[in-house]
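Notebook, student rotation project (T.W.).
Task set for the rotation: take a protein with a known small-molecule partner, predict the structure of the complex, and write up what can be learned from the model alone. Partner molecule chosen: zinc ion. Sequence and SMILES entered below by T.W., checked by me.
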Amino acid sequence: MTSILSTLATIAICVTALALLTLALLVSYRVSLKRHPYTDCRPCKGTGERRSRLFANSFGNCPTCTGTGYQLRAGARLFNVR
Ligand SMILES: [Zn+2]
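Predicted structure of the complex:
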């Protein structure tokens, strides 16, 4: 009888610890999104320019980031953090 209770108590402590850990991770991710909402644009690697395949010296603005070189992070887009 007591062993069942202690097993249940252990499970309850583990679940609570896991929930607290997840919460702490989520909060720190949210703070990070607020402080640094942008990331390097992946197609142009943060340069903001797209090179021509045919002519090595010609380039234009990257259409993904419109020449800025940065993009909103996926989390900032999902949770609408500005
Ligand atoms: Zn880009």
